[in-house]
Structures are given as C-alpha cells and as structure tokens.
Design goal:
Elements (H helix, E strand, L loop, with lengths): L4 E4 L3 H7 L4 E4 L5 H6 L7 E4 L8 E3 L5 E4 L4 H6 L1 H6 L1 H8 L4 H6 L2 H6 L5 H4 L41 H7 L3 E5 L5 E5 H4 L18 E7 L6 E7 L10 E10 L2 E10 L6 E2 L1 H7 L6 H11 L11 H17 L4
Parallel strand pairs: 1-3, 2-3
Antiparallel strand pairs: 4-5, 5-8, 6-7, 6-8, 9-10, 10-11, 11-12
Helix pairs in contact: 5-9, 11-12, 12-13
Length: about 325
C-alpha cells in the first residue's frame, strides 16, 4: 500500500478543505481500504469524516426521510420508519454484503463504492476505469458478470450496489456540499454516470464535494419488491436485480417504477418500460411487453447474454406478483 497522510476532520467545512488535491474521504472504508491494498486507489491523504454529525435519520417537514451520509447500512435497514415506509430500501440493503459489512458501511460510501470487475482490480490488465486510455480487457475477456445496458467500447463494468438500485427506483435525492459551503441537490438517477469515453469519471460529484445526506420522497406508488439473483445465497453481488414500485387501480397500472442492478455501469431505470405500462391494463401480456422493452437496447458480450433473458423474466415475474396475478 502506498504511504498516505491521515487527518481527522472536525467539521464538514474542515473535511472539505482537507480534501483538496489527491485525497479521499474515509468513512466505513469497506471498499476504499481494499482498493488501497490493491493499489487501485492511491490517495495522498485520507480525510477521516467518521466523527462528523452526519449519521442521523430524520423525518422531513414536508414528509419523506433524510438519511445522513454516515448512517450505517444496518442502521438504515432496521430503522422502523424505513421498514414501514420504504420496505424496498430495507430489503435491498439486507440483500447486500454480510451483516458485518452492513454494520460498518455507510450510506455515502455505498453510493461511491466502485465496480468489482476483476480487470479493474488486476494491475496487469488493461482498464480504462483504473488507468484511462489503456483499453478494456473485459471486452473480449471473461465478461459473464459485466454490463448489457448502457455500456461503451471503453468500459462494460457494472455498478455493484443493491442499495443504489432501490434509491434509483425511489427517486431519491443526493445532497452534497463543496468548497466555499456551496450546496447542491442531485437527483439520484443523475448522480452516477454511464461510461462513455471516460469510465473513470463515475459520478457527478465535483472536486472536494462531500455527500452529506440522501433524501427519500414522501409519496410512493403502491406495492414494492426487490428481487436479486446471484450465484450463491449470501455475500454475492447481483447477476441481475430488480426494484419495482407498482400501483394498480381498476385493473390498470396507475404508477410504476422499475430499476435494474447488475446490468449497467449505474443503477438502471427502465423509463421506456414504465411509460409503456402507465395507464395500460395491468395483465401478464402488458407486463411481458414491458419487460421486453426494458432490455430492448441490451448489447451483451460473449459470456453475459443470459443476463438479458434473466432481467426480462425477473421484471415480468415481479410485476405479476405485485399485481396479484400469480
């Protein structure tokens, strides 16, 4: 591991001031420390933010809930307000990692965790995400776990988070603070970026900005489900996951949101499928067509074509079950 300086921030402003240049914020460290051991991440300074007052979970005046960036994943998943008002989020979190990691990992860190692509972790492999403009060995390598949607010829890595798939479906908002006290609110579906030609630029965060909280909206449509398919029952990343919110009124789809994990460089919202379903009869033929639409733009590689059919079937099954048709 490369040598680095360590500082402990006393305030949010102090943390941001300390983060100028080649620095990383340290919270749970469940992903960052691994990356530093592999020398994928080589920060000159770690800014410890664990003592900042950002760990609360608070009701909002207009409804909704604010999750502090330093709230632990386990804390969020077991909070009574989250369990009863946002069960989709609680289930997604409990489907991720192990209990030990959930006790350590934070909300802000979860948003910023990096891909588990083996070529990204392998210093001997070509990886545009780790070393820009060096190529991508995953394109023609073993790419079973890689992206089928939204990828590019520069990168086909997937975002690993379960929590983030749920937050995308919930239309959450990410609150950040930057140098000079400038604050921004970023819609969650815009927070992560697709790879394009710059897969090393993964989020809309600007230099020095710190995630301070995530806001959950007050009004959510109908029933919710999070379903994850993986190679083993515990402590495994998704091959495909789906987060669905569905409200059916008088036999028609009044509102729907569909987000996918394990298939793209970011949590993937199936907007065209949602548009197709809204106002349509809520039956199995409609759900089948919407599921097909959700993966219509998929571009699988040599080893991951199964993900297209898996995602389609998972969406169809989840919609059918939420509508009470199974």
């Amino acid at each position: 591991m490369k040598e680095f300086a360590y500082v402990r921030a006393a305030t949010v402003s102090d943390a941001i001031d300390q983060a100028a240049g080649s620095a990383r914020y340290l919270a749970g460290g469940t992903n960052l420390i691994d990356l530093m051991r592999e020398e994928v991440e080589r920060p000159e300074r770690l800014v410890d933010i664990t003592r900042l007052p950002l760990a609360g979970i608070e009701d909002q005046p207009g409804g909704g809930l604010r999750l502090g960036a330093l709230a632990r994943n386990s804390q969020v998943a077991h909070d009574e307000r989250v369990r009863h008002r946002y069960p989709l989020l609680a289930k997604a979190i409990l489907n991720g990692a192990s209990p030990q990691l959930r006790n350590k990992a934070t909300v802000g860190g979860n948003l910023l965790q990096r891909t588990r692509c083996g070529y990204f972790y392998d210093a001997a492999a070509a990886c545009n995400k780790r070393a820009p403009r060096t190529g991508c060995d995953a394109l023609d390598g073993f790419n079973r776990t890689h992206a089928v949607l939204g990828s590019s010829e520069s990168c086909i890595a997937v975002h690993p988070s379960d929590m983030c798939v749920a937050l995308a479906a919930l239309d959450a908002v990410v609150n950040v603070q930057g140098p000079g006290g400038v604050r921004r609110a970023v819609p969650f579906t815009d927070f992560h970026r697709l790879p394009g030609r710059t897969p090393d630029v993964e989020t809309e965060l600007r230099d020095g900005e710190l995630i301070t909280s995530v806001d959950l909206p007050p009004d959510l449509p109908g029933q919710a489900a999070y379903v994850k398919v993986r190679d083993r029952a515990s402590y495994a990343f998704a091959l495909v996951s789906v987060a669905v919110l569905l409200r059916v009124e008088r036999g028609r789809t009044a509102a729907v949101r569909i987000a996918l994990g394990g298939v793209a460089h970011k949590p993937w919202r199936a907007y065209s499928a949602e548009e197709m379903l809204t106002g349509a009869v809520a039956d199995e033929p409609a759900f089948r067509l919407a599921a097909e639409e959700a993966v219509a733009e998929a571009r699988p590689r040599r080893h991951n074509g199964f993900k297209v059919q898996l995602a389609e079937r998972l969406i169809r099954r989840t919609l059918t079950e939420l509508a009470g048709l199974s």
